[in-house]
Every structure is written in structure tokens, then in C-alpha cells.
Amino acid sequence: MNKGLILFLFLSFSVFVFSKEAYAYLDAGTGSYVIQVVIAFIFGGLLSVKIFWNRIKGFLTNLFPRKD
To answer: pTM, whole model, 2 decimals?
Structure first.
């Protein structure tokens, strides 16, 4: 594995394990905002696949050529 990835995973893990309690308030609109971001991410990915479908299909065709 890549050293940068290992460092990132270690730091991410340590933030969750060693964090102290946070007395924070989550607004009622926070959940709907998170849902909107997830939906936008999914539809953005689908739109990207639609736009570049011919390139993706050509790449996969060259990667796995048919044997006659």
C-alpha cells in the first residue's frame, strides 16, 4: 500500500478514536443538505458516464479484445 494512504487512514482513525465530546448543535436542515449532496454526487457520476460512454466502451473494448 501507498505510504500516503496508510497515513491518511491512520489519521482518520485517530480522529474518531481520540476525539473528545463535542457539544454541538446540528440544525434541522443539515440532514436534508447531506441528502441533497449525496443525490447530486450520484447524478453527477451518472451524467459523467453518459457523456463519456463511447470513450469508456472503447477503452473496455481495447482492454478485452474479442478472440475470433
So the answer is: 0.50
